# Entry
Amino acid sequence: MTDKRTVTALSLFGLLLLWFAAAALTADPQILPSPAALVQPFLREAASGELPYHLSQTLIRVAWAFCLAMALGIALGLLMGRSERVDRWLDPWLVVFLNLPALVLIVLCYLWIGLNEVAAIVAVTLNKVPNVATVVREGARALDPQLDAMARVYRMGRLTRLVHVTLPQLAPFIAASARSGVAVIWKIVLVVEFLGRSSGVGFKIHMFFQLFDVAMVLVYALSFIAVMLAVEWAILQPWERRVRRWRTA
Amino acid sequence: MGDPATVGAARAALADRVIRVNVIRKTFGASVVLDRVVFDINPGETVAILGPSGIGKSTLLRIVAGIDTAYEGEVERPAALAIVFQEPTLLPWRSALRNLTLVHPGLSDDDARAMLGKVGLGDKAGLFPRQLSLGQQRRLALARAFAGAPELLIMDEPFTSLDPATAEAMLSLTERLIAEVRPATLFVTHARSEADRLADRILELRGAPATLAPHLIRNGASS
# Structure
């Protein structure tokens, strides 16, 4: 465990050194500022309240889109994995949506729903649902029929069966789609904000892009990466450890 | 649970009921597996079905349990049903105690602990099934079956893959729990000794498609 952490720390330190070296070689802070040059802008932006505000706006959108995409994707994947008939009917839709570029969905949502919060969250959700459904469908196809039979004979209630028999079997698939989901969703949220919102990290990156302020683009991007890493370490990893406890006990 | 008052009430409610099995035909594709398998089980009676591997014993049990509904015929069965599969078929992500209380929501933690105590798992309530040996997992499956004071208990070769000592301990435990709870019991086995030990009546599946042999084996003697 300690070895793994040491390697992670050394690896990140190596990346930092590479950045310092590249900045020194470029010798143009407007193109690539060194990491040290970001400290002052970061502190200034944090103290003004701008950085926390825009980070929280993006985080709220990520949370909404993540929860909606996971709920819809799990329900759809479960339905398709359990029913061959539903799968036959919905599989072509899934293929279409999986191949629809994120940008197209975002633009269409803004055109159809308007430049508002609902359109932003719907666009991100629709982008992620097909991925979650595809992964969860594989899990639903592999559900243990004996456990199903047991639950039926003992007349376990629908909710009990879902929570204690079905979802634990799907947990590895849900965890895999949740982790990739968070990573993909926040990137799409930034595009959504870039194109049509007046708050959030994506909006700020758009603004500093127009000002050609690379330092501030990096400040906002790195800050949000830090937030998402904190979400991964503080929420996702402990949750995954908890649901996997029975395997390692 | 297995306390005398509850078991007595369950038995009284069952007094005039019989489990009636009338499977006219069961097919898998073009192949007929079971043909005219008809028998009754009286309240409190233990019936064993003997037959070689692959003849359709487990298929018959799945029909009786209501798991397999694609057959010609009808089965009259009580609502309070319990089953013990060949494999323990537990919820590996829930503790031994939760494996009982989730399946029987009316069962209190104390009653569940008492049931675990009866099968020798009193100190294992908090463990996950993977932390138990196969013999212990089988006992947990047995505890789950008896915890609901079933009117009909179905067991599908519950003593296979166990070493002789563990199988003997399981047989004794099953014998004791059946005597205490007195469900109508239907179990399949290919071991004549297990049938002789537990059953009031032994039926034999034979032939292709399988049907019940015309003779009845009772207490080790054919009639």
